[in-house]
Known about the structure:
By secondary structure, the protein is α/β, with parallel strands linked by helices. It has twelve helices and 13 strands. A nine-stranded mixed β-sheet has the order 6-7-8-3-9-10-12-11-13, sandwiched between helices. Helix 5 (120-132) packs across helix 6 and helix 6 (136-149) packs across helix 8. Magnesium ion binds at residues 43, 47-48, 108.
Amino acid sequence: EQPLLEISGLHTSFDTFDGKVRAVDGVDLAVHPGKTLCVVGESGCGKSVTARSILRLIEDSGSIDAGTVTWNGDLIDGTGEAFDVLTLDPGDKRLQKLRGGDVGMIFQEPAASLLQLRTVGAQLVETLRLHTGLDKKAARAKAIELLDTVGIPDAARRVDAYPFQLSGGMCQRVMIAIALCANPSLLIADEPTTALDVTTQARILDLIRSLQAEHRMAVMFITHDLGVVAELADEVAVMYLGRVVERASVEELFADPKHPYTKALLASVPVLGRDRGRDLPTIPGAVPSPLHRPSGCSFHPRCAEAIAGTCDVEAPPEVDFGNGRTAECVLYETEGVRA
Ligand code: SF4
Ligand code: MG
């Protein structure tokens, strides 16, 4: 089936006092209608920057240097053609339609993403009216219903609250309600439940799943929580230092991880789905700064299977095992096809 969204050869960098940081260094990903892609990896591996690059929400110090982000949504629903989001004019209507409409986004910092001087209800009603065509009264009723669904107690009263009057967890739920209100065909969620209690977390994952079942919403879910991956993912992409080092279905990834980094991540997750709420196990050594990227395979200083004289010198090939399964590691050079 045709992917809803296809990222190809994405490079995003940031200027810092110490030099240029290649945060995303050649990423290829695809998300399919009705499916969940989990992007997993330690912090600083480029997951969030990849997500933000899709709708070009990169700070001023950053730039998207290369790649394409192909949106096939309009083609799939018969309303238009496929297009590359990265080449759209900033004023292009299609970009506005994606942001908050066809693509709902939930970020890590709710306080920064909500407008502090407008009520929760006003922000929801505006998004609803812009993208769904509901009238004011219907939009307000829908807003209250959504706030209730994401677990905000006394939603009929809190709809008129300002974000600064709400706790961080409440703001997080409001952001989730805003992201979901226009029935997006893609939801991009960056660690959306990390700050929430287990009950609310479960409720929000259930809500995402039911929306997915109802109208084939695709989900790109960024997390470092392997329990959430086991529970939610269809496909998984493992990132390390700005690159996708392994891609697999969730079953294959847990049953037969290929990349030594993936193996290390999974080393202490014995039973699928049992470890919700658990962070990635610690792997010896720290993630190197993308400013001082190791030579050869960037995982080699931490890799239990590194081959001296090879892994520290040569960038590993990306090996394609078929069926969307890949690993970027020299150990599989003879097993699959070089991608
Ligand atoms: Fe380890 Fe070498 Fe594979 Fe890199 S290429 S993951 S260092 S074995
Ligand atoms: Mg992040």
